[in-house]
Amino acid sequence: MNLDVKQIFKAPTYEPLATVDVFYTYIPSWQVYSGAKRMDIAVGDVIEIWLKKGAYGWEPALSGNTVKHIKYVENRKEPIPEPIWHSMKRNIRNVWLRHSSVTVWIGILAFLFTFVLFAWRKRK
Length: 124
What we know:
Blueprint: E1 2-4, E2 19-21, E3 46-49, E4 51-53, E5 58-64, E6 67-71, H1 84-99, H2 102-123
Antiparallel strand pairs: 1-2, 3-6, 4-5
């Protein structure tokens, strides 16, 4: 990510900054993530960010926890679109597993178990 520098609060005096290359790991918004806060930055955002010198250059000091939005662009474009199979799996999980009663699932599993058991006995 390349950021245009508008104001520097504190930085090494020997390094004049007009733009800064910030190194981070991109995780799409549709991907399950646990850990520090996401860095939700898009083209057109105005942010305040704390950086530290890392192994590859400037890195966010504490991931998304050090990013403060001053201007947030509403129409955000996802660089990596969500795969169709992923959205289908998410929708099936949301509709079927979260809104079905446990009794219905136990009944379906009992029926399938009985069906498999009778089919297996007939083969013998």
